[in-house]
Amino acid sequence: MTIGFLIPLSIGMGLAGLVAFFWALRNGQFSDPEGDACRILIPQPPAKGDTHVRLASQPDHEDPDRGL
């Protein structure tokens, strides 16, 4: 490939990235950085095999391997 092809290609890719960044900025993709930071602190659902607090008081759900 010649440099006459690669230079316009790299400029075009850079402009496409810049357009994508401004599009994301304009559509509110970066409007809630505090929410993203706090979202990692929200507890995740229990892992498989762990007893869920809401279901722990119901006898049918204490042992999921037990058949009905």
Briefly summarize what is shown.
It contains 3 helices and no strands. It has 68 residues and is mostly helical.
What does this structure look like?
- The protein is mainly alpha-helical and 68 residues long.
- It has a domain at 1-32.
- 51% of the residues lie in helices and 0% in strands.
- The mean pLDDT is 77.
Helices and strands in order:
Layout: H1 3-26, H2 33-39, H3 53-56
Distinctive features:
mainly alpha
The strand count comes to: 0
Mean pLDDT: 77
Q: How large is the radius of gyration? A: 26 Å
Query: How does the overall form come out from the CA principal axes?
Result: elongated
Distance between the termini: 69 Å
Oligomer: single chain
Q: Which spans of ≥5 residues are poorly predicted at pLDDT below 50?
A: none
H-E string: HHH
Largest sheet: none
